Amino acid sequence: MGNPRGFLDFQRVELIKLEPEERIKNYREFSELPSKKEQERQGGRCMNCGVPFCQVGKIEQKKEIGCPLKNLIPEWNDLIYKGLWEEAYRRLSLTNPFPEFTGRVCPAPCEDSCVCAINGKSVTIKNNELAIIENAYKENLIKPIKPLKKKNKKELKNTFIEFNLNCEYKDCNHQNEKNCEVKKMVNSGKILKSRYENYLKFMGEI
Predict the structure, then answer these.
(1) Does the pLDDT at position 179 exceed 60?
(2) What global pTM score does this model have?
(3) Which helix (H) or strand (E) holds 79?
(4) Is 172 in a helix, a strand, or coil?
């Protein structure tokens, strides 16, 4: 544990949220992580509590205690405090195959179980998790696990099935065709550009 006084020296810092007037201008996320340096300090708030209830993952008296995935929370909190982001991602990926989702939509029972929350504010476990996976994407640490059976291009095109019916061509690949509804949605911001770029990347690998 890098900083035994972290929970005393550092205040909890929440996500930066855009004002409603700004949110309605596009379809992007309206919550942003603090700076990387600040997120490292948030990792330092994880205390040497002895019994990390945050990772217990049990139901007692109809109440969930800790992370149901049994994430190694104190370990990767300590690693990001020390600036060891790649190692933190390795520890996180041992137990959680989809932190880019849980870091956004998980109700975070781990934070309710955090010892810091007994008489103060819990560690920003959920935000730390999100920061780890977002940094892993930026640093190109994410490597695809190739399935035993590859999808064909027809299956992959169903990624945008909610827009496919509006394309001019029934067999549209959403790349160079005219009047492609998917490309229109990308240009208007209704489909994230990063999602579309991932689609093109996978199409190129098939």
Answers:
(1) yes
(2) 0.71
(3) helix 73-81
(4) coil
